[in-house]
Structure formats: C-alpha cells, structure tokens
Design a protein that fits this description.
One of its GO terms (cellular component) is cytoplasmic microtubule. By secondary structure, the protein is an all-alpha fold. It has 3 helices and no strands. The longest helix is centred in the first third of the chain and has 65 residues. The protein is rod-shaped and about 95 Å long. It starts with a helix and ends with a helix. About 15% of the residues have low confidence.
C-alpha cells in the first residue's frame, strides 16, 4: 500500500509540474501572438507608406524622363537599390533566425538597367512575398 501512495504522490507532483509548464507555454504563446500582431500591423503600415512613396517616385520619374533629366533618374534608381540592400541587411538575420533558409529570402533588387516602373514593381513583389511568408 505504501508503494501505491508513493506512486500517487509522484503522479501528483508530475501533474503539478505539467500544469506549470502548460501555464508557462500558454503565456509564451500569448506573448508571441501579441508580438506577431504588432509586427503585422507595422508591416501593413510600412507597406502603405512604401506604396505611397513608390507612386510618388514613379510619377516623378515619368516627369524627369519626359523632360530629359535622366541623370537624376539614375541617381534615384541607385538610391532605391541602396534602400533595398539596407532592408535586406537589416532583416536577413531575422529571417535566418526563424528557421527559413536563404532560398526563401526576398529576391535580389532589380538591376540598374530596369525602368522606374520595374523597380517599383520589384519592391512591391518583395513586400508581397514577405506578406505571404508571414
């Protein structure tokens, strides 16, 4: 009988330990869920800002091309490539730390010879792919 009491006490301790672990995991899941929601909201806000900025840049590029100011347009293309590279540098470690491999990382920035519309579409495609991954 004392063996069954010891076995019962051991089971009670295991149940209590499992309850504590379950509680801890629930808190962690809730924290992760809240963090993910925050990131989704921030990403959505950033996408809207980027769409707006991209529209303005494309409009300015059309005006510059029609007025023959191609050197400024080339500078804008280079700037966009720099921004895309900076974005990839900033977020690549986070992508790798979530278990995603390099084959799932955002595509490389559009080449320098693409037109201003192509740069905008490439940026938008990258954001859409990030959204799908999320």
């Amino acid at each position: 009988m004392s063996g069954s009491i010891a076995s019962y006490d051991q089971l009670v301790r295991q149940v209590e330990a499992l309850k504590k672990e379950n509680s801890h995991l629930r808190r962690e899941l809730e924290d992760n869920s809240n963090h993910l929601s925050k990131l989704e909201n921030e990403t959505s806000d950033m996408k809207e800002v980027l769409k707006h900025l991209q529209g303005k840049l494309e409009q300015e590029a059309r005006v510059m091309v029609s007025s023959g100011q191609t050197e400024v347009l080339d500078q804008l293309k280079a700037l966009q490539m720099d921004i895309t590279s900076l974005y990839n540098l900033k977020f690549a470690p986070e992508v790798m730390s979530t278990g995603r491999g390099a084959e799932e990382s955002p595509p490389a920035p559009a080449s320098h010879r693409d037109g201003p519309g192509e740069l905008g579409r490439a940026t938008f495609r990258m954001l859409e792919e990030l959204d799908r991954e999320r």
